[in-house]
Amino acid sequence: MNALPPVRRQVVVPAAADVAFRVFAERIGAWWPLARFSVHGEKATVEFRDGRLIETGPDGEVAEWGTVLHWQPPHELRMTWHPGRGPDQGGEVAVSFVPVTPTQTLVTIEHSGWEKYADPVAGRDEYRNGWPAVVGAFAAQLPGNADDGEPVWLVLHHTPAPGVDNVFDHPGFRGHPAFLAQLRERGILVAAGPFPLSGEGMTILRLSEASQVPDVVRAATEDDSSVAAGVLDVHVRPWTPMITGTALT
């Protein structure tokens, strides 16, 4: 069986990267949705302690969610991930914090290592449906509006989802060109198209204001029905063009 690709969830928050990192890591107990995703329930607490992510139940019982493998504020943290399981039955979670503007940060959660799960496909599907709620709870801790600033460029990298052999023949793919048409109508689409033979594709966007970025990142996952239905996976990346020119038509 080929290795299953990571589950990726992204959100743009109106905060500098160092603030976003601190809220995610140091205040995780304040925003994590324990009522839905925990071992001991909503009255438990969770915190990073001595290089581990630890949940403590109301009766003092402890559950280890994972061990920190890499800790580099304000850019990235990476850890093993096995809430409610042993370390040999879990994967890895990496969280990156990439500045979009001085007051906006793209936060990306990538969950990988599905081969260690008893049922890799079911485990991936479970977390694919669960991480959006976690990401939303985190973003809610950083309300507000970022400064508009200069125009922002984004690249959307699309890849076939697991089990999709020929993405262009899949009936669910038709939602993707429809989504690209919406981006064109908004006046933010620069170019879009596939890489030959691979089933992958790239879309380049130019946003006139940074205030548009959070909605575009959300839309890339939720409004593109081919992504929402699990036909395509998408990875949004900020892009800084150093040289531009006049395109031939």
Present the secondary structure layout.
Layout: E1 7-13, H1 17-26, H2 28-31, E2 45-49, E3 52-56, E4 62-72, E5 76-81, E6 91-101, E7 104-112, H3 120-139, E8 152-160, H4 175-185, E9 189-194, E10 201-207, H5 213-222, H6 225-228, E11 232-239
Antiparallel strand pairs: 1-7, 2-3, 3-4, 4-5, 5-6, 6-7, 8-10, 8-11, 9-10
Give an account of the 3D structure.
The chain is an alpha+beta fold and 249 residues long. It has 2 domains: 7-139, Alpha-D-Glucose-1,6-Bisphosphate, Chain A, domain 4, CATH 3.30.530; 152-239, 2-Layer Sandwich (Alpha-Beta Plaits). It has helices at residues 17-26, 28-31, 120-139, 175-185, 213-222, 225-228, and strands spanning 7-13, 45-49, 52-56, 62-72, 76-81, 91-101, 104-112, 152-160, 189-194, 201-207, 232-239. The protein has a 7-stranded antiparallel sheet with strand order 1-7-6-5-4-3-2. A 4-stranded antiparallel sheet has the order 9-10-8-11. Strand 3 and strand 4 (62-72) form a beta hairpin. The model has no long low-confidence stretch (mean pLDDT 93).
